[in-house]
Task: inverse folding
């Protein structure tokens, strides 16, 4: 079958399977009491199932007849299943963060030894081919880092889902244009599955993605970037664009870990200091926070594509600077929103105070 029609069929069928299966997952979770309870880190008010990853993976199962099981693809699929199982156990019973980290490292090692690895930075910061030991270390750290980064992003309604849809659609197009049918179909299946899940995650979440979804999706994001680096040596646009989807989650993870270490806390200790938590504090609204972060993501992506199209190798040598500029712009917007909300609350307080004073004068 033509790759175009196959890709369209995969998106539609994975979407429909997720859309149909998730209501049954929600009902089962409520009947069996497998709900996420509210705690000090929660931004939701009611107990809610965290098994969205089950529906997403069921949707992606449509891929099985179409995949050519090469060694890298087999390693990727096995890693997805292993992290899905780990996340599912964590969603149902909770497991230690160190255990999840060890499983992520195991998956990264499996993918590296399958042949999927970062061996060339293609001129980013002036670096091209890298030694074997550096390649090994960078590949494992990158996969584990991206997996964790995406996992940490799953904290407010719609954010992880929308980011996954944008990123998987982007990678799907890149792989499609390069004739990489295996990875193109994998990316499009993920896009369709998450799209079906998102129907029940916004505006008022009936189900969360959970670790059963965010962990294996994070792994796939890391694999997609590495695959792009391996097969697009002379395509600056594909390589530079492939980095953008990972920038916000990686930046937030580095910031978060650094903050915890400076506060003499464990880097793995859960808290309410994620980027999306900070944005919620400034906007006081899940939808606004999600919109703000996704908008930044899309603007960064569009900006990098434009500069890459017109600048070629210039982007590869200045990519980090450009992205840091985006962070500065975002932080400026964040500060503006925070100041705006404080002024709004102050205005309401003064209005109430003046109203009480007028009432006292009448008395």
Result:
């Amino acid at each position: 079958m033509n790759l175009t029609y196959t890709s369209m069929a995969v998106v539609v069928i994975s979407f429909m399977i997720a859309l149909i299966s998730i209501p049954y997952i929600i009902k089962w979770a409520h009947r069996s009491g497998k709900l996420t309870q509210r705690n000090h880190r929660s931004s939701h008010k009611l107990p809610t199932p965290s098994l969205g990853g089950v529906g997403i993976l069921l949707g992606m199962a449509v891929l099985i007849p179409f995949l050519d099981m090469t060694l890298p693809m087999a390693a990727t699929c096995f890693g997805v299943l292993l992290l899905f199982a780990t996340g599912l156990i964590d969603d149902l019973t909770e497991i230690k963060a160190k255990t999840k980290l060890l499983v992520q490292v195991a998956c990264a090692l499996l993918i590296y030894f399958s042949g999927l690895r970062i061996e060339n930075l293609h001129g980013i910061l002036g670096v091209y081919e890298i030694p074997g030991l550096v390649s090994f270390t960078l590949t494992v750290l990158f996969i584990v880092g991206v997996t964790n980064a995406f996992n940490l992003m799953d904290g407010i309604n719609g954010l992880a889902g929308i980011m996954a849809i944008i990123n998987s659609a982007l990678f799907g197009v890149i792989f499609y244009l390069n004739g990489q049918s295996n990875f193109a179909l994998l990316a499009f299946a993920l896009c369709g599955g998450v799209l079906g899940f998102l129907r029940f995650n916004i505006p008022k979440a009936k189900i969360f993605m959970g670790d059963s979804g965010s962990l294996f999706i994070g792994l796939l994001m890391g694999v997609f970037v590495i695959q792009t680096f391996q097969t697009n040596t002379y395509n600056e646009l594909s390589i530079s664009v492939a980095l953008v989807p990972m920038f916000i989650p990686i930046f937030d993870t580095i910031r978060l870990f650094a903050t915890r270490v400076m506060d003499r806390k464990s880097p793995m200790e859960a808290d309410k200091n994620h980027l999306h938590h900070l944005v919620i504090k400034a906007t006081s609204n899940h939808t606004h926070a999600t919109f703000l972060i996704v908008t930044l993501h899309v603007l960064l992506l569009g900006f990098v594509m434009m500069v890459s199209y017109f600048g070629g190798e210039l982007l590869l040598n200045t990519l980090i600077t450009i992205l840091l500029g985006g962070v500065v712009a975002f932080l400026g917007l964040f500060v503006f929103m925070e100041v705006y909300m404080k002024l709004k609350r102050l205005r309401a307080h003064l209005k109430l105070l003046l109203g009480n004073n007028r009432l006292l004068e009448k008395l």
Summary: The two ends are 84 Å apart (CA to CA).
